[in-house]
Description:
With 235 residues, this protein is an all-alpha fold. It folds into two domains: 2-184, no CATH class; 186-235, no CATH class. It has eleven helices and no strands.
Amino acid sequence: xxxxxxxxxxxxxxxxxxxxxxxxxxxxxAYGILMNVNGYGIWWALLISVxxxxxxxxxxxxxxxxxxxxPWYAFFMSLMxxxxxxxxxxxxxxxxxxxxxxxxxxxxxxxxxxxxxLCNEKLPEGLSEYRVYFxxxxxxxxxxxxxxxxxxxxxxxxxxxxxxxxxxxxxxFVVIFVDQxxxxxxxxxxLVGVLSSAACVMVFGQSVFIIPAMVLILxxxxxxxxxxxxxxxxx
Length: 235
């Protein structure tokens, strides 16, 4: 019975992840190539994609490795860069709260693109929602890891000019932002992000605005979440 439910969930999940596959194979390959260009072989690239699996942080990590930055600075920048996952986590609390043994992996594997697939997904009756969530998350990570491995292997066989490849993830973020803006019913979170970032650029400058912007966005979104919860409890 469980095997039948798993196959049904997998068959439903796979088509939902095809757009992510198209992006992750390319972006993962770019990451693998960049790791190879900077002297890190396929196993480094693949293990990081399996155990870290953090997209933009992995790209930033190449700079950390190459420049041998202070570990505390790297830790703090990594924390701030991935602070946006707190927003996803807050919005997925109700969906994941009864996921049982699948919950740790679902939390670990929640990326921008996986969130965009799951956040508004309405499942047909009869499907196990947590199995669907699991397979969407797993497939997305497999695409990223496969792209990473392919890029790392290709980097050992072909000479690449890697200039500009690190912009690939930024381009994907822009595409996701535009798509979410068009499909979303409200733009409050997007406006908070844009306006907070713009304000911090003006106040702190382009070189150091990221951390204060993330702190400001986190504070506003978190406060808004708890205000909405209080309104729901009162009504």
